[in-house]
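@channel anyone free to eyeball this complex?
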Amino acid sequence: MRPEIVGQRSETVRRANLSAIVRALHAQGPLSRSELVAQTGLTRSAIRGLVGELAAHGVVSERPPAPLGVPGRPSPLVRVSSDRVVVLALDIAVDSIAVALVGLGGQVLDVERVDRPSGHLAVDDTVADLAELTARIRARQPAAEDPIGIGVAVVGVVRRTDGLVSIAPNLGWRDVPLGERIARGFGTRVPIWVANDADLGALAEHRRGAAIGWDQVLFICGDVGVGGGLIVDGEPLTGTAGYGGEVGHIPVNPTGAACRCGSAGCWETEVGVGMLLERAGHPPGGHREQVAAVLDEARAGSQTALGALDETGRWLGFGLAGLVNVFNPELIVLGGLFAEIHPFVARTVEGELDRLALAAPRQLVSVVPSILEADAPLLGAAELAFEPFLFDPARWLRVDGGRRLASA
Ligand SMILES: [Zn+2]
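replying in thread with the prediction:
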């Protein structure tokens, strides 16, 4: 950064610089001051001042790294204090709900997931169950600070501005003001951010999972339905209101089955859990245990199970070929059901991509299973809740400072 800009010492510059430091530490873990200089482009003295300010508020601390047996004194590492700034992450999936308390830096301080019967569940019951899980976790973590925000992943189509779930076919919800309902149910006034589970899965895989360091990423998550999330130029692609990425409802089969969204022949009717079970001769409506049973049968050499997986893989590759042509991603991350069946379908999927996608974008894309697995949306919800703090930590420092003065 040019000296005259540092010289301005304007509030705007200071806030942007604090944000750059906190973001780097949150995303990459402990860094030395020299590494922070290299990462942010700030001067050594600016880093010293700003790190000192963050340390005074307990947001970061400086400690020597663990000795590695090398002579000389290793330079201290700046690290975030993960119990100082925490968020609450909630995940509402088709057949389970989860709550996590997550500290700055992405450290999961505590997490609990419980299975629930899949089917149409009332919003109020869901919110009450989430509040109960949250209370349990807070009781186990008395030392953690109050969360600065709540992030919510939900298996539905969500308007980002106010957390309205426009439709969640697999929960039976329509036009549910979920953010509002959670605020009321939890009796809280902290900011609540709601987003689609696959969008948040993409965000989490990009920051913490299989897609770290990749900037053009397509995340596809299979379950009863199929969700998709896109990272374009390193940023989530949400569309005008946040409704984007609903790849599961791309029509792929003109003679296909009716879809829960009201249409027919959507991609998820061909690659979702229901059709896999049907092809494998299992009763529809079954879920995780049934999928596990199909995989066991396939491992034991059952031709029906292997055939069902292969057909699902074929439809998976068919849809992915179209998405590769439209978005030209570098990486496709398969989550949920698709991660589980990946070992059985990888060859078919790759073969369909070779056969159907345009050669140039096809050559540039790799397909990998998710690393974060079922927790990807939950961890993405935490990232969503951290975002306002990462954008402007100075605002939080001011509020925190005020609170300390008031309590002094
Ligand atoms: Zn549909």
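from a first look: The mean pLDDT is 90.
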